[in-house]
Amino acid sequence: MDAKSTVEFTMSFSKKKDRWTIFLIVMIPIAALSGWFLAKSALNTNETFYVNIEGSTTVYKIIDKSYKAFTLYHSGVIITVTGTGTGSGITALIDGQTDIAMASRPFKDTEQTNANGGLIAISIAKDALAIITHASATPINMTLDVARAIFNGSITEWEHPAIAASGLSGTIQVVVRESGSGTRDAFNELVMGDSKQIENGSAYVSNAIQKSSNQLIKDAVAANPNYIGYLGIGYIDSEVKAVSINGVKPNIENVLSGLYTIQRELFLITSGDPEGMVKEFINWSLSPEGQDIVLETGFINVAPTTDDIYN
């Protein structure tokens, strides 16, 4: 190719490149605007979407706040959230009475069998179970063996040498979650040594008071100096004192490091792969905005927050 041909080819190629660049400059905004109109059209349909969520009272504290934020950006979506306990939520899901079950434990083999293998669990947060005493108590440390002995009735008085540092006196009253609670199942496995409470020493003392939510346990312990109970760390406040286990406090840092061992994951469970608005809500729960709410409610995020993304 001679010099003249080379120049002509280069000029021709340059003109074609310029025309292609101009084409892209014009078309990209048009394509983006078209996508915006399509998305807006889809959101502005007159259809109303209903999503029912039921189950764990621990997870309820997160979802009760996150669904309100979610619906601010999703018009035409009506979400109902009810805290009934993990077992009840999963049963409702299997029976087709709810779209999402909130769970503070993994689903059981028997539940998966009843669901014909269709249950799918998505972790949205981490939690630690904390043993709590009345706010007037001096913060104390105990081993898992001592904790087990208190809840199974082997230790019955606050003056016992293992816990006398609390400054409390009198007979200990144990407060626990009701049967079917995911929090109870987790505590039974991690502290009592047997989730089914069949093994020797794993059953609660016979006069243990049962409560149907974390909040009710907190309220009972806050109102009675002799009471001791357990709950998710998201419910701890100035009205109660959290007990250290083996010298480790139940807080976010110690859960993340693995030093505090009484911990678990929190789940949203669906029957089959989530679809439609159910999938949209679960995805949003794992978004930075959704994970911000996990932290705001006192639990531990499992995916990046907005601080992780933008800082």
Protein architecture, described:
The chain folds into two domains: 49-125 and 265-310, 3-Layer(aba) Sandwich (D-Maltodextrin-Binding Protein, domain 2), CATH 3.40.190; 127-263, D-Maltodextrin-Binding Protein, domain 2. Helix content is 42%, strand content 21%. The chain has helices at residues 3-43, 57-72, 86-94, 109-114, 144-151, 182-192, 214-223, 252-257, 276-285, 288-296, 306-310, and strands at residues 49-55, 77-83, 100-103, 119-134, 141-142, 173-177, 209-211, 227-232, 240-242, 244-245, 263-271. Strands 1, 2, 3, 4, 6, 7, 8, 9 and 11 form a nine-stranded mixed β-sheet that branches.
Number of strands: 11
Report, as a whole number of angstroms, the end-to-end distance: 56 Å
Main CATH class of the largest domain: Alpha Beta
User: What's the order of the H and E elements?
Assistant: HEHEHEHEEHEHEHEEEHEHHH
Low-confidence stretches: 1-43
Q: Per DSSP, what share of the residues sits in E-state strands of 2 or more residues?
A: 15-25%
In the CATH hierarchy, what is the superfamily of the largest domain? Periplasmic binding protein-like II
* CATH fold group of the largest domain: D-Maltodextrin-Binding Protein, domain 2
The structural class is: alpha/beta
CATH architecture of the largest domain: 3-Layer(aba) Sandwich
Tally of separate helices? 11
